[in-house]
Amino acid sequence: MKKILIYVIVIAALLISNVSATLAAPLNKQIGINVLLNTGINNRILAKLGTYGKINEMVYEINAVTMKIAENDLSAIRALPFVAAANPDAARNGAPIDTVSASDFADGWNTWDQDAINVTDFGVGRTIGYDGTGVYVAVLDTGLLDSWRQYFPQERIATQYAKAFRGGGGENGNVSEPPNMWEHDQNSHGTHVTSTILGYQYGTAKINGVAPLATVIPVKVLGQSGSGWSSVVARGITYIADLKAGPLADYPVVINMSLGGSILDAMEKAAIDYAIEQGVIVVASAGNEGTYGMGYPGAYAPVISVAASGWVGEWTAASWWRTLDVLEPTNPADFYITDFSSRELPGQDLDVAAPGSWIVGPYQTNSGQISYYYLGGTSMASPHVAGIVALMAQKDATLTASDAEGILEGSAISLAPGCRTVNDGYGNLVEYCWEADATGAGLATADAALAATP
């Protein structure tokens, strides 16, 4: 499986009449920044910050402010006595790695990835006694396609809590909340991620999910291109934390974030800390950068981070993803870590691995045209674990983030460093190798995690 990375660089050249103006221009570049305070927000602080630029947003729950400033003023803001941290708004991306069209969904409840985490078994159907009932899973992503009702039961989507946030990056001004945009996605990423948690429907055929009776809260924090900003992600996290502190206080709440970027943003970190304090459990993808290291927020220790594993039976038969049995008991020799899955670097925290190589689900490349694709990425691995956490939280409604992480790591099946030769989906046999920095504690499975949950 090849990793496809697309970088778009736009350079604007200005004709300037003197050298001094040319040198001064970069220093006055306007940027968006996120400022985390070490105290509460008040008028005195806002007035002082306002001398450096435009204040866009105040997020009182986490004592954070977003601003638009001249780049050369960032160091001065960092030096202010009431500033705990300040950094440029960080890019976030949720794009998958590989896509291959799939069209045959005529029968079958079991799929290889659900079988691999021991939620279902080939020819048997569902094999565990929990289904996510009473648990809310917030999917912070691109939102859902207009056609989402053709994939998911309406009662499984919490439309009363669904939300979209847009903006960020400073130059775009305030983070706005456009109504109903959460269900007008043109990207499909969030819909595919949701399908792993809930399962999905094709005609009269129903495909199983990890937690099919959980209730999903779609929160659109990424744009139609599948990218966005950490300030917007932080707003989404804070929104879910406030729901947990309010109307959802009596229900377990899990966040899935199949997204990430190269740096840990102070505002995003504070939002995660705030959410965990309210009782939310946060799961995120490890990233698709291979040996270049994990993405954030997944690499942040309190977050349950997920690497992408694959199965040696991939592409070995027609409709293999639903016609082949992943043998029980789980044998580590049947699995591998993908080449794109981010490896853990010093200072980063990788927890477990889950299926993320070739996951089938709803994915539209033409607006309004129902279609299904295999997608590969740690974006696809993360919702498997978010779903497992939902099952754990159904069993124990008092489950905390640290409890969930400890149980997942303690019950994971160790995957030693090694190599596997598998079909890459393009007719080639490819050897994938990995070291201990790629696996976390090992392969997450629902049955083992539930057995270890009090």
What is the average of the pLDDT values?
Answer: 90
Helix content: 10-25%
Shape: globular
CATH architecture of the largest domain: 3-Layer(aba) Sandwich
The main sheet comes to: 8 strands, mixed
Number of helices: 11
Structure in words:
The protein has 454 residues and is α/β, with parallel strands linked by helices. It has 2 domains: 27-88, 2-Layer Sandwich (Alpha-Beta Plaits), CATH 3.30.70.80; 93-451, Rossmann fold. The protein has 11 helices and 23 strands. It has helices at 19-24, 43-50, 74-78, 112-116, 189-198, 230-245, 266-278, 320-323, 378-395, 401-411, 446-451; strands at residues 30-37, 53-59, 64-70, 83-88, 91-93, 98-102, 120-121, 125-126, 136-141, 163-164, 200-202, 205-207, 215-220, 227-229, 253-257, 281-285, 304-311, 335-337, 352-355, 359-362, 372-376, 418-423, 429-434. The strands form 7 sheets. Strands 9, 10, 13, 15, 16, 17, 18 and 19 form an 8-stranded mixed β-sheet that branches. It has a 4-stranded antiparallel β-sheet with strand order 2-3-1-4, with helices on both faces. The chain has a 3-stranded antiparallel β-sheet with strand order 6-21-20. β22 and β23 (429-434) form a beta hairpin. It is globular and about 65 Å long. The model is unreliable at 1-25 and 99-108 (pLDDT under 50).
